[in-house]
Amino acid sequence: MHWFTALFVVVLFCGAAVRWWLNLRQVAAVRSHRDRVPDPFADQIELASHQKAADYTLALARLGRWDTLLDLLVVLALTLGGGINAIDRAWASAALPAVVHGTAVVLTTLLLVSAINLPLSVWRTFGIEARFGFNRMTPALFVSDLLKSLLLSLLLGAPLILVVLLLMERAGSWWWVYAWVVWVAFTLLVTWAWPTFIAPLFNKFTPLTDEELKSRTEALLERCGFSSKGLFVMDGSRRSVHGNAYFTGLGRNKRIVFFDTLIERLQVPQIEAVLAHELGHFKLHHVRSRLLLSLVIGFIGLALLGALARWPDFYTALGVSNQAPHTALLLFLFVLPAFMFFLTPLAAWWSRKHEFEADEFAAKHVDPRQLAEALVKLYRDNATTLTPDRLHSAFYDSHPPALVRISRLQQLAREHA
Length: 417
Description:
mainly alpha
């Protein structure tokens, strides 16, 4: 056995084992606290709501174990199991030009993986989400979204893959630098176009009409020195009862979007506080720093791919016989996540740090008690567990645990007072 084969198998199984172990820890922690609401939330969240959140978390955890097993089997089947080889040989009979052949192989493989994962997505939407009263997605809308996403992926992804493979074949040993420039341009273009041209394909966006909320929001934006293309309400209730708010777009094309479910459930001062938190991410350059980090990671990743594509053992050690640009790209896409998985806690820590900083920013512009009350309502309505396992949360969670975050906001409220 080649040493890289052994390394890949060990890393892959270790990652799956860690995922499974953390999943079991999460289940044990949530079950052990299911019958008692934590004291800081006892006056705001009923026991029935707390138990619903626990049961919802346990159902998602059970689904997560299947997801872990499926990921492991799919990666093994495509690499050492000869899946990529089989797809490559199947397309070889079409006698397509090399770059077109490679694009077809990459797209076919990615579509196959999506199809394999589809049953879990269906079960989450129409099984778990429906059982806990969150799903409003109809089968027709689910299929419509699926077809739109597929078409959009082909329209955007196929040209990008074609260009990258063309550069890998003809641009020499420094092809990856040119590919990175193309990828940066593509990322910025999609980010800019998303709010105006892409998101409306899936949801309806209408200007905010609530005069009180609009007035307070505009005043908050002015205090924070923030400009946008407008305030919009999204019909999130067509698919789910979960509520949220977010910013989207780039440069002058930025939009502020509220889910209609959020507006229905929160009071105006609470919505204003949630918006202040989101504004904090922009004013503290969190969005920019995350985008820059993704570009840096992309640069390093493409440089690594450039080196691996020239290494013959990279193909043979992973079960691929055709040493071509498209097989190198596919192997990289499926092998790299196994190694990157162990950096997940670092990314989660950085994200939680940003959440704390955005909370502190919000506390300077609104009453932090309003943000705390809004979060408690969102925890309750979205069935977010209040008692996650400490290690599971540290490894995965992009937001601080509820107890920690609310305690921090209460401290900020005391300092504010």
